[in-house]
Request: fold
Amino acid sequence: MCMCMRMCMCMCLMGAAAALQAQTACRRAATAARHCTPYARDLAFVAGLVVATEPFAVGEKPIGSWFAEEQALSILMSQAESARRLDSGGRDASVQRWKVATGIEFPGMVARSETPMEVTIDSETPRLSISSGDSKTVCEGGPSWARGLLARIGEIAETSSSNVVELRDAPGGKVVCVSTISLKVSLDIPALLLPPFVPAGPFERAGSESIQKLLDRDMEPLLAKFCEAYCKWAG
Reply:
């Protein structure tokens, strides 16, 4: 899911940069002419996926205990540039707090999105839920105006995601691991860039399709890796 968040970040950065430039231009025009009243249009890019592993046998250790292992969670977040746990609750904690960082390189600078992740673990069911919080963009290098522009991405962009992993029965006494993912990117685009007479539908479809392609490509092998690691861990 983190690779898809990287794609979301890229879309947000491009949209934010253009939107904030438009807002600046409009404010300047308003100062000179006193008749520019900017307003925003909401765009939403949405994707979702349900993916399942091949059937496998539960090992000597319950999979609910595996859900609480930092190794397991690191695999699910392995497509990020980095992932680290923030809380000190230990493996028995039903709620864990993590932070993932995802970077995108621009000429002369790097924009890095830092996103808090909340992990809820139900070892009895078993069920694992990962949801993202508000991202913060940190820029390294480049001119100060560009760093300031990209650092203000949170003013017009919002990304939310969730990934629920659970077990379902399969024939022959085996189980499958099922991951249900949802992802949404919302942008407030000034009407200067997307006037009311221009339909938003094509933009939303194109953005949603881009995110969906990444989910379709990346999540199945990632979940397979998660379950293969469990089988080795469980013995």
About this structure: Residues 2-7, 9-39 have pLDDT under 50 and may be disordered. The CA atoms of residues 16 and 155 lie 8 Å apart.
